[in-house]
Amino acid sequence: MPDYTGGDLDLRGLRVGAYIIVGGIACALGAAALMLREQPPAANTPPHAFAGKAPLLQPAPQPDRAAYFEEKRRATQAYGWVDREAGIARIPLDEAMKLMAAKGAR
Question: Can you tell me where the transmembrane regions are (predicted)?
Fold first, then answer.
């Protein structure tokens, strides 16, 4: 097996190829930058930046979430008035579904 020291390897071709690749990448980046500079803002871009305060984050929102869902569960499973003067009442969801099914079966 001959001893290979790498002295007879011509790296000029590899170097030229690497320069061509790097030049192509640079040209593509430059063309993309020019295209993006000429584009108008996207349709969903707000006209000005949001200037309000950031929303407050809760460290543990689980109890509030559980209370919210319990309130909604109670509202969908109980009778009650939505607007007594207008005569709008709330009935349990299961009863409402039975009434709608009976109405649709006619």
Answer: 16-36
